[in-house]
Amino acid sequence: xxxxxxxxxxxxxGPPGAGKGTQAPRIRDEYCVCHLATGxxxxxxxxxxxxxxxxxxxxxxxxxLVSDDIMVGMIKDQLENNKACKNGFVLDGFPRTIPQxxxxxxxxxxxxxxxxxxxxxxxxxxxxxSRITGRLIHPASGRSYHRQxxxxxxxxxxxxxGEPLVQRPDDNVDTLTKRLVTYHTQTGPVVDYYRKKGLWTxxxxxxxxxxxxxxxxxxxxxxxxxx
Length: 227
Ligand code: AP5
Hints:
Elements: E1 8-13, H1 20-31, E2 34-37, H2 38-47, H3 51-61, H4 68-81, E3 88-92, H5 98-110, E4 117-122, H6 125-133, E5 135-138, E6 143-146, H7 173-196, E7 200-204, H8 209-222
Parallel strand pairs: 1-3, 1-4, 2-3, 4-7
Antiparallel strand pairs: 5-6
The structure holds BIS(adenosine)-5'-pentaphosphate (AP5).
Keywords: ATP-binding, Cytoplasm, Kinase, Mitochondrion, Nucleotide-binding, Transferase
Enzyme class: transferase
Subunit structure: Monomer.
């Protein structure tokens, strides 16, 4: 792990199944930063059956996006109150729209902080179908597995806790098709936004998880961390 003095503020962007949730925990562990996954936060609300969770479930199952105000509020709360973010963060699933990116910029400006990098995991849509339909998750930790590509040691069982694995309700071909349209139309412009700011690096996400990780590490080393 890096020395705590070295900070990292980064964003992982990519379509559903690109590997954001696979790579982000490793970034969190190696760089001692917080991992803020807006999808996981929403699924937590759904599991707790809060009013926000009930509303979000309908939107998520339709492959659409929850409102910018709600999502920005969630990230703001984490940046202000989560002590694990002291050394920086990896954002996974946020920002997903231009207004979210703009609001993140103003939040960071107020905090006198700067982004180090924005890493886009690039992969063709057709490769994502098998990744998404074979995915298994451990709801409590957010750990993800794959029936063929990353099988758990015991079928349908989390390696670390022995608890059962489940399939996400939005991980079916119909919802995935809508999630991909949403990604290209709404999140595509976010990639250009960061490209113009000189923060963007693209990585081929069709390679094995360890090769993707090596390239993410290289991208971080190339972008000078700012404290
Ligand atoms: P979210 O949870 O963010 O879902 P997503 O963006 O669709 O991304 P995924 O979690 O599906 O994919 P991933 O890239 O993490 O893939 P993974 O690493 O697991 O969001 C869900 C919903 O919440 C959204 O649709 C939206 O409605 C709402 N939402 C969330 N944030 C929002 C926001 N900011 N604004 C508005 N709404 C928001 O990998 C997939 C599978 O492939 C796994 O099984 C894995 O084991 C396997 N795999 C990974 N890497 C590889 C590899 N290199 N080779 C082979 N297999 C691999």
